[in-house]
Structure formats: C-alpha cells, structure tokens
Specification:
460 residues; alpha/beta; FAD/NAD(P)-binding domain; Enolase-like, domain 1; 3 domains; 5-stranded parallel beta sheet; 32% helix
C-alpha cells in the first residue's frame, strides 16, 4: 500500500506524528507491534503517576494526626489498585484509538522493519511503501552483568508497575528518575527500600544543582528510603535469610530486585542496514536539525533519536516534523528548554540551565531562591520541604533556568517554561501579580530575591 507517511511506533512521538500528518492532509499509516500509547502510556509515565497519586493518600493518612485528624490503619487491596491503574491506562489508550480513527490514520498492528528505500515490511506478510518513514520506536530497559530480567527475582519497571506483590525488602539498582520514582511508590506501600547508585550522587544525569539533589536525598532518608551512593551491585546470591544482593560494600537481603539503570533506544532489528543508517554505540539513530537520518526519506524522533528520553520531547519533535512534511518551516527545538518533572516525594522539576551549567556557558549567574517553608499555602498543605530557584543572567536579568523541589513542582514548572521560552526577565515574573495564598507565589518570590527585592525572605 502506498502512503505519504508511515510511522513506526505508536508512543507519544509516533501517534502524535501520525495524527498531525493526517490532519494536514497526508495519507498516513501507523504501525505498532504492542499497544497504542507505547511505553509511556502503558508501562511508564501514566501508570507510574497514577500509582504516585494513589499512594500519596497513604502518606497523607499516616501523618494526618499532626492536624488532629486520625484514620484507622490503611489496608491495601493490591488487586483493586492494579485494576484501577489499568482502568486509567485503558481509558487513555481508547482515547488515542478514537483520535487515530477520526483523523483517518490507517493503524496496522504488526512488527515492522525497513526493507530498502521507501519500503516497510510487516510481520503479517504485507508491505507498505511511503515517501517518508518516521522511526518512533522508543526505548527499552537495560540489563547489567549479574542481573537479568529472566531471573524471577529481578523486576523491570514494567514488572514493578504490574503490582503483583508488595515485597518486604526491595532493592532498587539505579538512583535515576525511574528508580527513585518507583522507590517512592513502594516505600509508601510499606516496603523496606534500598537504592543502590554506582555514582556519587542520585539523579546524576539530570542537570540539577547540588542543593536540589541534597534536598531530595534528605527527604528520601526521612521517609525511610535507604540510598547508598558510590555502591556497585555485583550479583545475586543465596543468603542465610533468602536472597541477597552482593555489592562492593557487602551483602543486602532482598525479596525483589528492581533493575532501573537506564534505557536503550530500540534501533536493533529495524532493518536500518537496508537503507544505510548506522546507529551510534548507544543505539541512538543520528539525526540532523530536521530530524532526518542519513537515509533519504527516513526520520527518527523520540527515545530512538538523540536527546532526553521524555514523552513531551517526542511529541514536540513529532508535531514539528509533521508540519515540515506539509510544507511548513521546520521548527527549531531548543533541547535545553524541555522541562522535566520527577515524581519523587517531594517532586523535582526543572527547565533551562542550572546555576552550574549557566556558569559553564559563560553567564554571570544571578540566583534567587525562596523556601516552601515561607509559603502560607505550603504550610497549610503540610508541605514545607523544598524551594524555588531562579537563575538569570546578571547583565540583562533574562531568566535562564528554574528548579523547583517541593509539592506540586510538576505543575508549577510550566510558568517557568513559558518565561524562559519567551526570553522573559526576572522583572516580568516578579512584577506579575500572583494570587495569594498559592504555591506559584514561590516563583515570584524567588525572582524578587534574585533582584534583591524579597519581602518574605532575607535579601542576601
């Protein structure tokens, strides 16, 4: 069958690209071997955040007595919780299916691979031809020596999100975003959680300042999450009390091991050799500013292409690429300005440059901070931990970056993203009236602090 665009992979890059292409009048097919929505919707972002929200109730109930409100000890119906989580996922998958249908996208459920220029071979024996082929195949969890997902003791993030059991002792290997988010969820469910991180700090691949990381690390410790940095996990062995994880610092008893050391682009088996495309050593498919690979008519977006592995990065690339296919100018994407939200407790969110990165790039950094503990709304929510940080260029006061660690940081970062994307100044934020009492006041106060005009904090 002939198409103008064939998209391989139906995650937040692939399905968004297919829908926008079809909206712009291009004959479009979308090929997916598993579920519409990809990893993000089915086994990643959405189920993780649903469980984060659900388990937050456990944390609130356990500490409500501080406000004079007491609850009976909570009971967890794991089967019901898993069913509710799957209901959230199913509803969103159904919505995507409807959108694809109403926009006229031809959806094919099959495995697929490139079969020479302009051709895609399907596992059902069919073949598609297209003027443009978009690779949006996402990424998969990485194994490390000594730990295999074939071992029944070892969980991937998919296994952890399936909610088959609540182990007494959970070892999380990897102190990155996925590991810490799932550590937070399982600690709330009652597990004794130990996080093993090879590097000196958690979240080492995220551009965060040390103050932000230290605030999160301190909070995790107070919650009972045992975080061990500079610790290498070696293997699993039998111990006197069941299984244990052997590390370079000793053995740690474990009922389950969650392996969360990163993800690898899904470029293997795509038939890249048939069009002369070679992935890099990580498996990423190199692209230019127009998201073109080295093969004519072949493009790559999302996790399989270089850049941060974030759903909203993929969907941003998807829309930009689709609009360029329809004759529009290719939108320039500044990857420094892609916000990130981490669903730990407290949440962490950032956009733009950290203070350290701003200085590396030659800026005379002007920094303002404001603590959650000085916000009336935060105190009323019993969420005093964390702070807002604004980094600006001292010469012109243009905002370069914002980090927020604290309650609802994921919701609060978007105002900062708009400010940075549009080149706004500290004054633009500080002089904008924010409603009181609210959490977004913290961003305004941080901007005032950077300007030396703080009212509710000491100017330094």
């Amino acid at each position: 069958m002939d198409y103008e665009v064939v998209v391989i992979g139906a995650g937040p890059g692939g399905y968004v690209c297919a829908i926008r292409c079809a909206q712009l009048g291009l004959r479009t097919a979308l090929v997916e071997k598993r579920q519409l929505g990809g990893t993000c919707l089915n086994w990643g972002c959405i189920p993780t955040k649903a469980l984060y929200s659900a388990t937050k109730l456990l944390e609130r109930a356990s500490t409500a007595k501080e406000m004079g409100i007491a609850f009976a000890p909570a009971s967890i119906d794991l089967e019901k919780l898993a069913e509710w989580k799957e209901g959230v996922v199913s509803k969103l998958v159904g919505g995507i299916e409807t959108l694809l249908d109403k926009n006229g996208v031809d959806v094919r459920v099959a495995e697929s691979r490139l079969d020479g220029p302009g051709r895609v071979a399907l596992s059902d024996g069919d073949a598609l031809s297209a003027e443009r082929i978009v690779l949006a195949t996402g990424s998969s969890a990485i194994e490390i020596p000594g730990f295999s997902f074939d071992d029944p003791l070892v969980w991937s993030s998919d296994d952890a999100l399936a909610l088959t059991e609540i182990p007494d002792r959970l070892i999380v290997i990897g102190g990155g975003v996925i590991g810490l988010e799932l550590a937070t969820i399982y600690r709330r469910l009652g597990c004794a959680v130990t996080v093993l991180e090879l590097l000196p700090e958690i979240l080492s691949v995220v551009d965060l300042d040390r103050r932000t990381v230290a605030t999160l690390a301190r909070s995790l410790k107070l919650q009972g999450v045992d975080v061990r940095t500079d610790t290498a996990a070696r293997s699993i062995a039998a111990g006197p009390d069941g299984s244990e994880v052997l590390t370079d610092a000793g053995a740690i008893p474990a009922d389950r091991v969650l392996l969360a050391v990163g993800r690898r682009p899904n470029s293997a088996g795509l038939g890249l050799e048939t069009v002369g495309v070679e992935p890099d050593r990580r498996g990423s498919i190199p692209v230019d500013g127009g998201l073109r690979t080295s093969a004519d008519g072949v493009y790559a977006i999302g996790d399989v292409a270089p850049g941060p592995m974030l759903a909203h990065k993929a969907s941003t690339e998807a829309v930009a690429l689709a609009e360029s296919f329809a004759g529009g100018k290719m939108r320039s994407i500044d990857y420094d300005l892609i916000p990130q939200a981490i669903f730990t407790d407290p949440e962490v969110a950032s956009v733009g440059l950290s203070e350290a990165r701003a200085k590396e790039r030659g800026h005379d950094a002007l920094v303002g901070r404001f603590p959650y503990a000085a916000l009336g709304k935060a105190l009323g929510m019993r969420e005093p931990d964390g702070f807002f940080q604004v980094v600006a260029d001292r010469a012109n006061h243009r905002v370069l970056g914002v980090q927020i660690v604290g309650a609802d940081a994921s919701e609060l970062i978007s105002e900062a993203a708009v400010a940075i994307e549009n080149g706004l100044s500290l004054e633009a934020i500080a002089d904008t009236i924010h409603p009181h009492p609210t959490l977004p006041e913290g961003l305004k106060e941080a901007a005032e602090s950077a300007l030396g005009k703080a009212i509710h904090a000491i100017n330094r």
